[in-house]
Fold:
Amino acid sequence: MEYSPGLSEILGVPVWLKLESMQLTGSFKIRGAMFAISRLKEDVITCSAGNHGKAVAYVARGATICVPRSVDQSKLSAMVAMGADVRVSEFDGYDETQDWAMEMAAREKKYFLSPFDDDAVMAANGGTVAMEVLEDGPEARTFVLPVGGGGLSAGFAVWAKDRLPDARIVGCQHVLSPALKMSLDSGQAVTRLPAVETLAGGVEGGIGARTFAVLQPLVDQVALVTEDEILDGVRWMIAHHQYLIEPTAAVTIAACIGGKVRATEPVVVGVSGRDVGERTVKKILERVI
Structure:
């Protein structure tokens, strides 16, 4: 964890960054992939917007990984370089690509490993992060997390709320793909959403049925951010911490600098990954010229 003077000034309380962007393979996803696959004997097929795929490629050499055609090229290249059997779908969105991957798994008689809607993945991706955060920052009470499928936030919330009943969980999402908010409003998991054009592919699409069942009673606030706010978050991290993070990871930063997170006690902000390609970096930086 790293103290953030800039965010502390903005929020008016001490703020630390949990830098999962510094993890092996570039994101927290290595935690869930390693734990879940260690428990399996079957051959694996999975679906990923990029980071989970990289983690699975690292852990299970030769695994089959299905990705949307909109996947960041740097993530695709990394998976191929690690020996994965990468199959690119004809869809831009995650949800349609997952359907395609699940059909493939059934046809090839392989185990489909969800990147989020899996108990082992939730426990490792979110639970182990929360264990470390509570150990290194015991005074923190508000935890700001990205929410895509929900694996990180669900596992984190279970551990944090069990140890700290007064913990506040803030889930951050893209305003055009707010599956968690929609699920909370309707009382049931919104597992599918139309694809949206975004550089933050990890927070695009529906939430998991299992993850929502876990999150529903535990999440305290949902903060929605726009595409421009997300890209501002990427640039803010470069300017204030000299870290280049991916747009998906910047949803939490965007929520904080955009005035959408309020706190009266110390805060930990999750920074989920750094995997971003050269073309994406150019797009982000060109917007400020």
